[in-house]
Specification:
The chain is an alpha/beta fold. It has helices at about 20-30, 50-60, 95-100, 105-110, 155-165, and strands at about 1-5, 15-20, 40-45, 75-80, 85-90, 115, 130-135, 145-150. It has five helices and eight strands; from the N terminus they run ββαβαββααβββα.
């Protein structure tokens, strides 16, 4: 991984580049060690940009042995680990009302970690305290730029800790 620092505001974001799916999984595994009950993470990026690969790392870091696949056609998959993992995919959601119909509040405000692929589609109903992670293709095959931006106060200290653990 190449640590790129804080391009926007030192208080709100940082970015890095992974050069392989394995590095993206490892990044997720590392961040999972800092996750707590009630955390919500919104994942955005083009199809195939690394959202589900990163989610696999989160699951590994939470002690989940299941094969993690995108919940595109069923909207939500749940897994049990150190904390429950609620893995949403809003790709096929047409409006926030559809997301409300699945009872999302029970999960987002429950006792686990919520990962929401395509979270930008339902951004207006997400909690104020959220970590947003965006994945971008780069020129080299398998290389991804990943930008982290936190909203709300609870992410600030934890972000500083995992940011330190990711620096070379």
């Amino acid at each position: 991984m190449i640590y790129l620092g804080c391009p926007l505001s030192k208080e709100s974001s940082f970015e890095l580049v992974t050069s392989s799916p394995e590095e993206t999984v490892e990044l997720g595994r590392t961040i999972a060690g800092y996750l707590m009950k009630g955390d919500v993470i919104s994942l955005s990026g083009q199809l195939g940009a690394g959202k589900t690969v990163f989610s696999k790392g989160i699951a590994i870091g939470l002690g989940i042995d299941d094969n993690i696949i995108s919940p595109t056609f069923i909207i939500l998959r749940t897994y049990q680990g150190r904390l429950p993992l609620y893995h949403f995919d809003a790709y096929r959601i047409n409006n926030t009302e559809e997301f409300e119909e699945i009872g999302y509040k029970e999960f987002l405000y429950g006792g686990g970690v919520s990962l929401i692929e395509w979270g930008e589609k339902i951004q207006k109903i997400l909690p104020e305290d959220i970590l947003e992670i965006s994945f971008y293709y780069q020129d080299k095959l398998n290389e991804r730029k990943i930008i982290f931006k936190e909203y709300g106060s609870k992410w600030k200290d934890r972000r500083k800790e995992w940011e330190k653990s990711l620096q070379p």
